[in-house]
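Database export, one record per block. Field names are fixed; values are copied verbatim from the stored entry.
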Amino acid sequence: MTTLERVKPDPIPAIRPVPEYLAEGDLAALYEDTKRVMQVPWMGVVAMAFAHYRTFYATLWSGLSPMFESGVFVDACAALRKEVEQSVAMLSPPLMTDRLRAIEYAPREIDNIRDLIETFSHGNFPYCMLATFARLALERDFVPPKSQTAPIVGRHAPDRSVPFVLMEAHHADAPTRALYDDIKASLGLPFVNTDYRGLARWPSYFSRAWDDLKPHIAAPGYERMVSHLHDRFVKSAAAMPNPAGLTPEQVRDAATSDAPLEDVIEVCRLFQWLLPGLIVNVAYFRHQLIES
């Protein structure tokens, strides 16, 4: 059975994500294809950090994109999401809707928060799969054997149009910047993920949501939940089809053409470590907004 240790790099490696507004030519086209296949409106930090190693990301994505377009892959992500949301319910997240109404959030505003959480709830799974495959190829010399599969037909992403506005630290007020510092300290990360910056567009909501979640993060039950999700991603990835016939040698050769192999591996480890926790946290926020 293929396994992959859950590892947080120490020290945290430097990441150099290439933002969408700086992507040109072939890289811009690669970004658009990533979003098209995953059916997401944003480039995750994981993919933009991988894209710092241009040959590596181009090779990895060209090999994985036919897999990510398959019905088997989409169904696997949906099954993982169902498991996560059932597990998070056991943390008994306190409901948020009435608290937001009490501070005069309109129904449309609450729906907008729900819609953004739904967008992240859908998109984080393929991004975590991306990091998992990268580690499997580079560290375990493994990708699934070549096999054919049928592509998904139609749209599987949420049918929502969500204004995608990120509250960057340099735009935020002092309380939000302090909240970002608390998130980084609590998670042991030097940056704030897109999901949190998106939800901080509503600072009075997000500060309450984070305050509810934070006590769980250091609890053993939370870490067991995240570790179990890590294992499920590895198991699910190992069972995927590989219609493009991507090989570990292709991924490794591409990585070493860009940088020392260990540098690329450390970046892959970082994101494959943090994304299961991010998925659990977003599921927690989603559960808070169940109608009460």
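Remark 1: The chain has one domain: 20-149+165-288.
Remark 2: The first helix runs from residue 25 to 38.
End of record.
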